[in-house]
Amino acid sequence: QVRLQESGPGLVKPSQTLSLACTVSGDSVNSGSYYWNWIRQSAGTGLEWIGRIYTSGFTNYNPSLKGRVTISLDTSKNQFSLKLNSVNATDTAVYFCARSPGVEGLDVWGQGTTVTVSS
Amino acid sequence: DIQVTQSPSSLSASVGDRVTITCRASQSINKFLNWYQQKPGKAPKLLISAASSLQSGVPLRFSGSGSGTEFTLTIGSLQPEDFATYYCQQSYTTWTFGQGTKVDIK
Description:
The complex is a heterodimer of chains A (119) and B (106).
Chain A: E1 3-7, E2 11-12, E3 18-25, E4 35-42, E5 46-53, E6 59-61, E7 69-74, E8 79-84, E9 93-100, E10 108-109, E11 113-117
Parallel strand pairs in A: 2-11
Antiparallel strand pairs in A: 1-3, 3-8, 4-5, 4-9, 5-6, 7-8, 9-10, 9-11
Chain B: E1 4-7, E2 10-13, E3 19-25, E4 33-38, E5 45-49, E6 53-54, E7 62-67, E8 70-75, E9 85-90, E10 96-97, E11 101-105
Parallel strand pairs in B: 2-11
Antiparallel strand pairs in B: 1-3, 3-8, 4-5, 4-9, 5-6, 7-8, 9-10, 9-11
């Protein structure tokens, strides 16, 4: 059974960098079969796809985040990570990691982690 | 970005009712449309991909149809466990989600 688990600080100060990791069990981020995604959800903006990474390191990002995002793989830990720079209060959200076979949707999700941006 | 707009934003229904939710895309997305169910405090769950392909383990009372710009999710006979919020999501270009349809008990 494939499981994804988000981890990282629950509180980040404005203008700093939000950093989260997603640990994958039951599958390999190196398998070449899936994309590994980050999504967030807030009351204000609903569900927002942040971006994804493939085994090769190829990435797609949501242009709305204006170059503040980096997603990377750590195959030694079977993890993928999210970094979001220059955060502000509008980045406060529940952050989810998820797997996708391609364009066929996000078929396995982590439970989500709440990140609050506040001084 | 391609926008996807769901209607209605909420509905009240009874167990056994047939429920239909619509998702409209701002431009043609072929069949690149997925449906999710989300319950409070939980992650979304993929129900249907590619407009009409039911995910393994999802009850047959759920069905999806459509192509181009108009899509529907139908619950054939609403069950108690189906009260939740439903989202559509397009995967044609930069992925975007609809704003959600909350299905609650009448």
